[in-house]
Design brief:
Length: 519
Amino acid sequence: MQKTFKVLSLTLAAATALSSISVLAATSHYADSTAIRSSQDWNQWTQDWNSVAADYTGVAMSPGRNETELNFDWMTPTDSANNAAVVYFGTSADNMQKYTGTVNSTDSRYTGGSYVSNKVTVTGLSPNTTYYYEVEKNGVRTGVQTYTTRDFHDVKMLYVGDPQIGASKGQPQNGEKLVNTSGVSNTAARNDGFSWNRTLNIASAQTPDLSFIISAGDQVNKTGKAKEEEFAAYLYPDALKKLPVATTIGNHASLTSDYSAHFNVPNETNEGRTEAGGDYYYSYGDGLFIVLNTNNYNVAEHKAAMEQAIASDPDAQWRVVTIHQDIYGSGLDHSETDGKILRTQLTPLFDQFDIDVCLQGHDHTYSRSKLLYGDGQTHHNYKFQLNSTKDDYDWDHAYDTYLDTNILLNPAADDAAGQKQLQKFNEDTHCYTINEIAGNSVTDPEGTLYMTANSATGSKYYELNTTQQDYIAARSQNWLPSYSVIEMTPDTFRINTYQITDDSQVQPLDSEFTITKTR
């Protein structure tokens, strides 16, 4: 694993449209958990994996509709006599209130057997308070945990990208190759689960007063088939017993209902839906957070969801959108292909609704954009269609809904017609205006800041795009797990990004960036 520490903060002239785009696989770089020197014992983890991989009942906490609520979700085996969604919660372990919720059937094709999904919402939370809670699974109380709220007007969040448990498949480890077969034998999930736990332990120790986590999608790797051991590894860390996560539907989860079986998201709308679920939103402190399922390419639906969200909290000082696909990223695999698909539609929409920051994933590289807003011109709309077997998207073609035409994203060099069509697509998606600023702080700016998070686990990395795009202010790929800490107050929105070295040291990955509002 590469251990050099480089921070790329380049500003280049506008990049010309690429004449040919190659779709690449992940690099040979990944986080090999046997080579990571950390406080955790890899040998112990491999012993524990037998039980971890077989337990599909891990508890997921999510933010509620606002800072005074907390959502719970967990699966349990179907048991008509004992299925009941119950959480005990209170300021004393000896006097907890009983909260009940809903029990929902799951699709056994995706959840690996006959399970139900239990969803409960706890209400009435106060700031800076330690609570005790206990989850009941099939009539059995499973042990008291603690959860501490923080200041509601000085909110710290951990922002991560693509844990993608199981994505290290095919990589070497101890003379073998990691595999993503099912259950305990899924050594890729075992590898990535260890790294995920390590990242959360290090990040939460560095910033102990975190309020919640924002994950920009692809929590797990498998598309279209049950891989419950990946969810089991994702939900395993002790840090997730104390921190709720606002998850995002990534392309690896969008085509099954497994995501919705595991996560209880607040204010879920009927807009932007795929099999996994739809757009949702929540308020926290002085921020309104809108999470869009951009695997659905109907932007009219996303607009409707955003209208609902803003109507629920019209006076929020900060408006933050999370999406999985990075419409302004800098990774070689996605930023010049599927990353552009929704750009022509979402950019003016974010302008219309005064979105301050857009948090993205998908590209397994790190980048921070300049402040961007639309160019005021009319552009075509694009989307991806499902492939012939309907089990994934046709990633090779962008569909132009205006011309009713498929655009080949990887035409051969001698395909003159294909190259011409691709060039028009690249020109049309250059639909933004750059608000040039000096330094790493800005006051009352015009435009939206776009962040793209690298993998928080290092389960899979991609190369940076050959040429840095003109809209990018800073980018890097150091082949190390990384994360950002966001601090939001009524006046400031501050982002710091870090990487974790093989010997578990935390290093700044980019300069701090701060947005200040005076009105």
